[in-house]
Design a protein that fits this description.
CATH superfamily of the largest domain in chain B: CO dehydrogenase flavoprotein, C-terminal domain
Largest interface: A-B, 42 and 43 residues
Strand content of chain A: 15-25%
Number of helices of chain B: 15
Number of strands of chain B: 14
Number of helices of chain A: 22
Strand order of the largest sheet of chain A: 3-5-1-12-9-10-11-20
CATH superfamily of the largest domain in chain A: Aldehyde oxidase/xanthine dehydrogenase, molybdopterin binding domain
Number of domains of chain B: 3
Helix content of chain B: 25-40%
Shape of chain A: globular
Order of helices and strands of chain B: EHEHEEEHHHHHHEEEEEEEEEHHHHHHH
Largest sheet of chain B: 5 strands, antiparallel
Distance between the termini of chain B: 26 Å
Structural class of chain B: alpha+beta
CATH class of the largest domain in chain B: Alpha Beta
Distance between the termini of chain A: 62 Å
CATH architecture of the largest domain in chain A: 2-Layer Sandwich
Strand content of chain B: 15-25%
Oligomer: heterodimer
Chain lengths: ~900, ~350
């Protein structure tokens, strides 16, 4: 109990550190066949014919499958829950292998061979005849008149979706706002600004490559073992692609070495399943190389943001406009969701007093497909929005922090478009905390009027982030717990551990809710669609919020069943139980209860009188006997709302156990959100209506519990009782119909060596308003990882596509520059821990937000240092030097 | 799994020469950090390999009786960096090869491979040019010695014949005694990097440390092959170490001797900026290491308004000057003299490159 808020050791730490943990490739059977995908060497066109004769002669080749062989089942790949409403269904624009080539590197054939070398040799020998069209690599090219529609089967032109959103009066336009601003404030009192900001296409660079292997089981099930974040969604797409009923497809997800959203897409699993079926169901392995991963899986969208803004001279934002252009590449994947997300945060983050107008365009091009990546459009949005904000602050001469505090979204903000609400508001506190931590005011003063070719600067950026996808999409999750005869239990989640620490956090939740000791809980890390509960998977920073709530409800049920059985044992101590080996212990416990509670002969011991704590069955001492220790047990619960995502002030939550050693703001300090519940600890079983006579007191712990016996006795008896055998399990589905904003900021201090175009990060701190932390150590890890990603995003990462050929130029980790450990400074992760009333434990999104604010904070620091506006990331040395020369600085 | 026909472990250099001579399609492999990357990409797949990886006769660094230094071609970067002879006589070379790739690559890759791969970006190459290294090759016709200035003939191409094995490098005493030098690798990140530009400067000062008696300047990635800048050197000879005009003339001349190209990795303009700026910094460092007073201040951040107490927790001027991925090589030499910093600490803070960096060639 009380494991919420503790820096618990990861449950998978030993396995992963020792290398014993089994990943997809570790589980392959011997004699598996190896497949190799053949990729197109043109960006746009048709495969006219393929000559496989020479390839087929390579010793070891078993079978070659080409784009002329595959079924015509168009399938979707996005890791979204399937929508039962056709307009909201993901776009089906993909075939297993493409005759119509959509980008340089499209999958056009596959070789199956006895080993990798034979497969690679054969793949090199396949001759392809193409009909070539002009590559359409950029958004302007794809939208230009006469551009070939890349997917005529689903769209008449290359616009996947164009959406229009506004804030303010109905039908607001920026032009209206500008006119109104002039009329209301006078032309001389306003500042009008326009700026374009560009973000690059980047690769996720997860360590484990996309790898899968597939076979057809003896029961006819097409089984795919794969490194994915979304096993249940993969199952759906494989079924659609292969034209099989869902029950015929089984997907298994073992440990995974990172995904960052790339594996929130169905990648090569359908092809892998198909290839196995082509060789009589023999196991076939399909590992995608790093080069193929960079080119042929998914990327982060390059988004160009064209911004307009008007504000008063004293820095009151009046109106802003964003036109966002997202290059979606060759296939729809997640479609418009990402660019729309980008536009939403632009309008939500600040209060335009007159209104905000946003246009989002998601466009097909003949280039690598963009899909989900950590942050899902918000790193782009934060860059665009926060460059604009700093540029505006500069124009009106305000301190960037003050300017943001004056204009940013407020407590209880509700997005009028989707109703998402800022339930627990720590945005301004985050700004204040970061500002103080990094010594903002002193350094801003210090870095004024610098000369010389090496300069320093400090910058910051803020963001907001929703938790999960409700109401845009379905939020549903299930959890199952199964008690073992020794009182330990398994936890089965549909939610996936992808390195973020989900298994550990779920174990902490289960320990907290059930009262089973942390080390007696075993989470099953592998998801198997045949045996695991349903969950849509790891994405949208949703699992601790949505799946965590499912587990909370499930744990509660399991505990009720254990206590129910314990009560039965106590009540039958002299009858059923009398014959068992535990008879004496139970009778003794019963006598103590009778004495403590003044029970009379024949009075029933009810489950509500009992509690499970650290795997010990305890008696909850009646109210009058407890003294001060347990505080007031008046029911603070019962606030579970109709939709199911319960009110957060839940007496079983046990919040308040945060490790105070490193948390400057520990959870134990009850805040305004109503943390009385926290003092109850993890054991506040509802006894408000219990009214027993007072008896003598003994063995009362600080929480008012009297230890009776180990729950193993209950578990064993429940399994093997000759009178009443009961297998204690629980399984709960949680449909979440709530959502709340997380927020936070990043502060960065840099030194710029202008003659060499080098940016050195001196200090960098993220402050996150992510509600209560379940595990501060894991939370800090998430933040550090995200910050590292934002450093690469800001300074060095960029996937380069040749505009003439559509070929990716830097498809390897030498040329695609992710920062190394030596490029990464020491980073600080701080939190403003407020209780969010919608989270199962006061928690809200944290998984993705750390990747969001770093890039604009670094850009704004460079601006502060040099006065140069780097409106395009990455801020490479070459671009910096060109800008410094242009500005006459070097 | 690599796509090779076979691998033959040669028993001696002569045996390797024989094996290569027998199979015109065979490829020579030593550390493998370039060859295996090419094989993985399917280039030259299916060929036989002749390995000199196990030959101890071409490993090691040796100070000869006449004061020349002999470096076996099969010596790994790590062994060079850690060689007491290198540390004492040519620390610049040990530091240059310590910028290659990461620790694993530096433990496998060899200096012979780095040079023979023919890449302009090879981290050892520009330093070897300023050392006027001589390359000793053995082939079917016997042994021959090639000055490094005549070794490269184009991107990825050298005068080494198919059946020739590079045995060792000779650095003459003339290029060691009284010389001090500095190699700056400029990359886009601080490790696992191919040089965007490499600049090597060696100087020899007059006995009063006031004049530049002799200077050598060489670049990697400033042309299709590593280049030496003789005209620039001539300008600086005999000039005062702190003569700013002289330095600018030196840099200007150097710009006429290079031929960088624009590629998607870096534009010509960008490389020219680096060629000029790195020459200034490498020269200043080399002069300082030689005990002279340099014209250029170390590029570092200063603020008049910064209080002493603030400076204390700020990165020191020296440390900030190394924000180039080249890092603190100069510091190391300076520190080595004052005995105040460990080699290891400095090494860890430095950068690297994949061997040869053939991809830029």
């Amino acid at each position: 109990m009380g494991s919420i808020g503790q820096r618990k050791k990861r449950v998978d730490a030993y396995g992963k550190v020792t290398g014993e943990a089994k990943y997809t490739a570790d589980l392959e059977p011997v004699n598996i066949l190896h497949a190799k995908v053949v990729h197109s060497t043109i960006a746009n066109g048709l495969v006219k014919s393929m000559d496989i004769d020479e390839a087929a002669k390579v010793p070891g080749v078993v079978k070659i499958v080409t784009c002329f062989d595959v079924p015509e089942n168009y399938f979707p790949t996005a890791g979204h829950p399937w929508s039962v409403e056709p307009p909201h269904q993901d776009i089906c624009d993909r075939l297993l292998l493409a005759r119509r080539v959509h980008y340089y590197g499209d999958d056009i054939a596959a070789v199956i061979a006895e080993d990798e070398v034979a497969a690679a040799r054969a793949a090199r020998l396949i001759k392809v005849e193409y009909e070539e069209y002009e590559p359409i690599v950029t958004v302007p090219a794809a939208l230009s008149e006469g551009a070939t529609p890349l997917h005529p089967e689903v769209r008449k032109d290359n616009v996947i979706v164009h959406s229009h959103m506004t804030m303010g009066p109905k039908g607001f336009t920026y032009e209206d706002g500008l006119r109104e601003a002039e009329e209301k404030y006078g032309r001389e009192n306003i500042i009008v600004f326009e700026g374009d900001y560009n973000t690059p296409r980047i690769s996720h660079c997860h360590i484990e490559l996309p790898v899968s292997w597939a076979y057809v089981d003896t029961n006819g099930k097409v089984t795919v073992i794969t490194s994915t974040q979304i096993p249940h969604i993969v199952r759906k797409s494989v079924a659609v692609a292969l034209g099989l009923p869902m029950g015929k497809v089984r997907v298994i997800k073992p440990y995974i070495g990172g995904g960052f959203g790339n594996k929130q897409d169905v990648l090569y699993e359908p092809l892998n399943a198909y290839l196995s079926m082509q060789v009589g169901g023999r196991p076939v392995r399909l590992e995608i190389s790093r080069e193929e991963t960079i080119v042929s899986t998914r990327t982060r969208h390059a988004i160009r943001g064209e911004c307009k803004a008007v504000m008063t001279k004293d820095g009151t934002m009046l109106a802003r406009e964003l036109t966002a252009w997202a290059n979606n590449g060759a296939y729809a994947s997640h479609g418009h969701a990402i660019c729309a997300n980008c536009g939403t945060v632009f309008k939500d983050l600040y209060r335009d007093r007159l209104g905000t107008e946003v246009d989002c365009w998601t466009v097909y091009t003949s280039s690598p497909t963009a899909g989900a990546m950590r942050g899902y459009g918000i790193p782009q949005s934060a860059f665009i929005t926060e460059c604009l904000t700093d540029d505006l602050a500069e124009l009106c001469g305000m301190d960037p922090c003050d300017f943001r505090i004056k204009n940013c979204m407020e407590d209880q903000f509700v997005d009028p478009g989707n109703g998402i609400t800022f339930h627990s508001y720590g945005l301004i506190d985050s700004i204040k905390k970061g500002r103080e931590f990094i010594g903002w005011d002193k350094k801003r003063a210090l870095y004024k009027n610098q000369t010389g070719s090496v300069r320093r600067g400090i910058g910051m950026a803020i963001f907001c982030y929703k938790t999960g996808v409700h109401p845009i999409s379905l939020e549903t999750a299930s959890a199952r717990m199964v008690l073992n005869p020794d009182g330990s239990a398994q936890i089965f989640m549909g939610a996936t551990e992808i390195g973020q620490g989900a298994d550990t956090v779920f174990t902490q939740i289960a320990a907290d809710v059930t009262g089973i000791a942390y080390d007696r809980l075993f989470i099953e890390s592998t998801q198997d669609t045949d045996t695991s509960p349903f969950d849509t998977g790891a994405y949208a920073s949703r699992q601790t919020y949505v799946s965590g709530m499912a587990l909370k409800k499930c744990g509660k049920q399991l505990k009720e069943r254990i206590l129910g059985y314990a009560a039965y044992m106590l009540n039958t101590a002299d009858t059923d139980i009398a014959k068992t080996e535990h008879a004496e212990k139970i009778r003794e416990a019963k006598e103590r209860i009778a004495k403590l509670c003044g029970l009379k002969e024949g009075d029933e011991i009810r489950p509500e009188m009992l509690e499970l704590s650290e795997s010990i069955i305890c008696l909850i001492l009646p109210k009058e006997k407890k003294g001060d220790a347990a505080g007031d047990r008046t029911d603070t619960t019962g606030k579970a709302d109709a939709e199911g995502q319960e009110a957060a002030v839940d007496r079983t939550s046990g919040i308040g156990q945060a490790d105070g050693a490193t948390q400057t703001d520990t959870a134990g300090k009850a805040d305004a959100a109503g943390q009385e519940a926290a003092t109850v600890g993890a054991v506040g079983i509802d006894v408000n209506d219990v009214d027993y006579e007072v008896c003598g007191s003994e063995n009362i712990d600080s929480q008012g519990l009297v230890k009776l016996f180990d729950s193993a006795i209950v578990a064993e008896t429940a399994f093997y009782s000759l009178d009443r055998s009961e297998h204690i399990t629980a399984e709960v589905t949680n449909q979440c119909k709530k959502n709340t904003f997380s927020s936070g900021c990043c502060f960065a201090e840099v030194e710029v060596d202008m003659k060499l175009g080098l940016v050195k990060i001196l200090n960098m701190v993220d402050v996150h308003d992510s509600g209560r932390l379940i595990n501060p150590a894991i939370s800090e890890g998430q933040v550090h990882g995200g910050m590292s990603q934002s450093i690469g995003y800001a300074l060095s990462e960029e996937l380069l596509v040749d505009e003439k050929t559509g070929r990716v130029l830097n498809d390897n980790l030498l040329d695609f520059k992710i920062p190394t450990a030596m490029d990464t400074p020491d980073m600080d992760a701080l939190f403003v821990e407020l209780e969010d009333p919608t989270g199962p434990f006061g928690n809200k999104a944290l998984g993705e937000p750390p990747a969001v604010p770093g890039a604009p904070a670094l850009r704004n620091a460079v601006l502060n240092a040099t006065g140069v506006h780097m409106d395009e990331i990455p801020m490479t040395s070459q671009k910096l030097i060109a800008k410094f020369k242009e500005a006459g600085l070097i | 799994m690599f796509d090779i026909e076979s691998i033959y472990e040669a028993k001696s250099v002569g045996d390797a020469v024989r094996a290569l001579n027998e199979r015109p399609d065979a490829e020579l492999i030593s550390g493998g950090t370039d060859v295996l990357i090419r094989l993985r990409a399917g280039k030259g797949a299916g060929r036989p390999l002749v390995s000199i990886h196990e030959l101890s006769e071409i490993k090691g660094v040796e100070l000869q009786e006449n004061g020349d230094i002999r470096i076996g071609a099969g010596t790994t970067f790590v062994k060079i960096t850690n060689s007491p002879v290198i540390q004492q006589y040519i620390p610049m070379l040990g530091e240059a090869v310590d910028t290659v790739g990461g620790p694993q690559i530096r433990s496998m890759g060899t200096i012979g491979g780095n040079i023979c791969n023919g890449a302009t970006s090879a981290d050892s190459a520009s330093t070897m040019f300023t050392l006027e290294a001589e390359i000793v090759l053995e082939g079917p016709e016997g042994e021959r010695v090639v000055p490094i200035s005549e070794f490269y003939i184009g991107p990825g191409q050298t005068v080494r014949q198919h059946a020739e094995v590079c045995k060792y490098f000779l650095i003459r005493r003339d290029s060691i005694d009284g010389w001090h030098g500095r190699y700056i690798k400029y990359g886009k990140r601080k490790a696992m990097e191919i040089a965007t530009l490499g600049c090597a400067v060696r100087v020899k000062l007059s006995s009063d440390k006031k004049l530049i008696e002799d200077v050598r300047l060489a670049y990697g990635v400033a042309a299709p092959t590593p280049v030496r800048c003789h005209k620039a050197e001539a300008i600086l000879r005999g000039r005062r170490t702190d003569d700013e005009m002289a330095v600018e003339e030196f840099v200007k001349a150097a710009l006429t001797e290079v031929n960088p190209r624009s590629s998607w990795r870096a534009s010509k303009e960008f490389r020219l900026q680096l060629i000029a700026e790195l020459a200034r910094r490498a020269l200043a460092d080399a002069v300082r290491l030689a005990g002279g007073k340099a014209a250029d201040e170390i590029a570092c951040w200063r603020s008049g308004s910064l209080a002493e107490s603030d400076m204390a927790d700020d990165t020191s001027c020296k440390a900030t000057a190394d924000s180039a991925s080249c890092d603190s090589m100069a510091d190391k030499e300076v520190c080595a003299k004052t005995g105040s910093a460990s080699t290891d600490a400095n090494r860890r803070s430095r950068t690297g490159e994949e061997e040869g960096g053939g991809r830029d060639a």
